[in-house]
């Protein structure tokens, strides 16, 4: 029990490191005050370019991998999902950055690639394809989250893992409420 609590705290703190804020700050920019104001890959891409966005994408994805690995190896495989959830909460509400964080998509995809490699690889490839074709990261993210639970199910994961995957997907979808409204009204911005 104690190890589980410590892992969740560590995962939250790992998730709280916002690479969008760190990368933008290294260029004397507060990413939360430019573009969409969201400290995430899409806003970094629009405001700082591909190189900075790639650094943020990799950094945020590695947070998910690290948290999931920590939960898996310290407590057990299903707990990797709980640790990923904690990292996702950390990314969305980072203690290091006044609890103003991003939408957690890259962190979630990184963790899912570690925990359910086939499902994670499909979701990451799908996310990238939608972004490249339609230039709309929010649409790609929402589609990935809608497909997360079915893919986790068909790849034979335990029921506990499916429940955690559902909680993760629901959280990310809720974080995209504003994007959903803009998609429906046709006013959502693109990444290029």
Number of helices: 10
* Low-pLDDT stretches: none
| Topology pattern, helix = H, strand = E | HHHHHHHHHH
Rg value: 16 Å
Structural class: mainly alpha
| Strand count | 0
- Give the tally of structural domains: 1
Q: Major beta sheet, specifics?
A: none
The end-to-end distance, rounded to whole angstroms, is: 47 Å
Mean pLDDT: 95
Beta-strand content: under 5%
Relative helix content: over 70%
Task: Using the alpha-carbon principal axes, give the shape.
Answer: globular
What would you say this structure looks like, in words?
- It is built from ten helices and no strands.
- With about 190 residues, the protein is an all-alpha fold.
- It has one domain.
Please give the structural blueprint.
Blueprint: H1 2-15, H2 19-25, H3 41-48, H4 50-74, H5 77-92, H6 105-115, H7 117-134, H8 137-154, H9 159-175, H10 177-185
Structure keywords:
10 helices
In short:
The chain contains ten helices and no strands.
């Amino acid at each position: 029990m104690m190890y589980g609590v410590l892992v969740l705290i560590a995962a939250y703190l790992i998730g709280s490191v916002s690479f969008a804020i760190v990368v933008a700050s290294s260029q004397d920019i507060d990413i939360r005050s430019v573009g969409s104001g969201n400290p995430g890959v899409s806003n970094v891409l629009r405001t700082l370019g591909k190189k900075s966005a790639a650094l943020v994408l990799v950094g945020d994805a590695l947070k998910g991998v690290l948290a999931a690995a920590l939960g898996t190896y310290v407590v057990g495989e299903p707990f990797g999902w709980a640790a990923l959830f904690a990292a996702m909460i950390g990314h969305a509400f980072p203690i290091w950055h006044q609890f103003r964080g991003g939408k957690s998509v890259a962190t979630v995809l990184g963790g899912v690639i570690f925990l359910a490699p086939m499902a994670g690889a499909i979701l990451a490839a799908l996310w990238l394809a939608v972004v490249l074709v339609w230039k709309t990261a929010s649409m790609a993210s929402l589609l990935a989250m809608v497909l997360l639970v079915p893919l986790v199910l068909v790849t034979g994961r335990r029921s506990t893992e499916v429940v955690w995957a559902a909680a993760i997907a629901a959280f990310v979808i809720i974080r995209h409420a504003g994007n959903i409204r803009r998609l429906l009204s046709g006013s959502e911005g693109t990444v290029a």
